[in-house]
Amino acid sequence: MDPQKEVVDRLRSAFRSGVTLPVEFRRSQLKQLMSMMRDNEEQIIDALHQDLAKPKFETILAEIEIITNELHHAISNISSWMQPEYAATNLATKFDDCSIRREPLGVVLIIGPWNYPLQLLILPMVGAIAAGNCVVIKPSEVSPATDSLVAELIPKYLSQDCYAVIRGGAEETKALLEIRFDHIFYTGSQAVARTVVQAASVHLTPVTLELGGKCPCLIYGHVNIAIAARRLVWSKFFNAGQSCVAPDYVVCSTATRDALLPLIRQVLEDFYSTEPQKSPDLARIVSPRHWTRLMGLLGKTRGKVVVGGESNQEDKYIAPTVVVDVAEDDALMKEEIFGPLLPILTAESVEKGIELVNRKEKPLALYVFSDESSVVKTVMEKTSSGGFCANDGIIHMTLPSLPFGGVGASGWGSYHGRWGFEAFSHRKSCMLRGWALERLNGLRYPPYTENKLTWLRWTTSPNASCSMM
Ligand code: NAD
User: Is 19 exposed, middle or buried (0-12, 13-18, 19+ CB in 10 A)?
Assistant: First the structure.
């Protein structure tokens, strides 16, 4: 038998046995995940360093802490999330028990990318376990050290009947997608998302897509430009720009750009010294293929490189780079950059900036930097994006109380905190009826009469405030 199918069948039997249903089981598995994170901190830091030269600080912040925070949140709230939600009743159902109950979907598949290779597998897994599912996770082969660590640790800590890791690249993932799952949660590129959706359509499997896109950062009106520069540089060059929510490009007026550039130079020096290649705080590009893609974009741009531009192929290094005089049809504006290259485009008014942004697909995140609340409000109301953050970058995705996800081409669905639990739950409408009010209920039965209809219509009229149907 196909080994992938064998794994999924094993999980399906476990799911059917009902073992994942009790809250105690779910909570114990989440606690096991917490132990996995605590016991193996050094190995995790090491694996991420091997894969991306990810600084320990960034691994602790964006992989370990974000996961343990999500686990704490889920462990504390799972009981209340699982409670039935009582629904309003009407005249005919007054004595009935009407509720929305969350039930697990079944055996779900989570496919992860390489840029936050642990966070983006385990965070959705927390929601899936909390919701009572059995779970297959498929780490990215592009981050091999994390891939093999995950495959080693998950079976050590979690129930092997209910949770499994299946490894492989594009071919293995395509084969995996032929198997029927009850939900597919995919994080990665838009191109591969199309393959995932096509495969899911065969079994009509629902999907959550966590994709990317070009996240703009608009800077308009009066603004604390010194702090803006620090926050922009941090959010852009964290993980060497390989964040789905990194500001992809800046749009501002020529005057703002001119004020910003010397500050960006200074902040880069403060953060990474005058020799960023030697800084332990700057990650590397994940693979030679991705390095070549980014250098290709830099080679094709018709803009002017004003900061950085240096690179080293062997070290998979690209300096934090800023490019100005970038046109809307430039190579840097045709695809998500996903690396340490920051184009700055100019548009003289916030309205023109908004128009520029709105000519593109809806992004995963949109940022505005301004001291003027009217500017922030205008941008928030006249643009659409998965998430929105004023006067900072990335930070909005760290709160488990905010749903994280895209809109349109940047993704379908959302997760984090309760939203992760919801993503992996079915909301079942339940009506538990007794035998009361049968005379009133009898109005709907044949033989149909005008009199019965008049009464029924009266119950639904706004004046009656006691709708029956
Ligand atoms: P990717 O699409 O190349 O790979 C993601 C996963 O898909 C991997 O596990 C890989 O093995 C698998 N895969 C690759 N090719 C496949 C194929 N042909 N068929 C089936 N499966 C295949 O994505 P990536 O390069 O790992 O990630 C980068 C993209 O992900 C960027 O666009 C980024 O914005 C996006 N991203 C989004 C989020 C988010 O939360 N929305 C987070 C991180 C990354």
Answer: middle
Q: Is 339 in the pocket of ligand 1 (CB under 6 A)?
A: no
106 lines ligand 1 (CB under 6 A): no
Tell me the pLDDT band of 84, cut-offs 50, 70 and 90: very high
pLDDT digits over 96-108, tens only?
Answer: 999 999 999 999 9
Q: With a 6 A CB cut-off, is 138 part of the ligand 1 pocket?
A: yes
Whole-model pTM: value is 0.96
Specify the residue with its C-alpha closest to ligand 1, atom 18. Answer: 170
Nearest atom, ligand 1, residue 195 CA: 19
How is domain 3-211+415-426 classified at the architecture level of CATH? 3-Layer(aba) Sandwich (3.40)
Q: Which of 244, 252, 336, 389 is catalytic?
A: 244
Give the pLDDT band of residue 464 (cuts 50, 70, 90): low
Distance CA 3, CA 237 (A): 41
Domain over 216-399 is classified CATH 3.30.390.10: no
55 half-sphere exposure, CB direction, 13 A CA radius: 16
Q: Which atom of ligand 1 is nearest to the CA of 188?
A: 30
> Which member of 58, 63, 70, 210 is catalytic?
210
- CATH 3.40.309.10 maps onto the chain at 216-399
> 141, 434 in Cβ contact below 8 A?
no
> What is the Å distance from ligand 1's center to 439 Cα?
59
206 vs 84, 107, 187, 423, CA distance in Å? 23, 12, 14, 10
Residue nearest to atom 37 of ligand 1 (CA): 211
Helix (H, G, I), strand (E, B) or coil at 342: strand
Alpha-carbon torsion, ordered 265, 268, 270, 275, to 10 deg:
-100
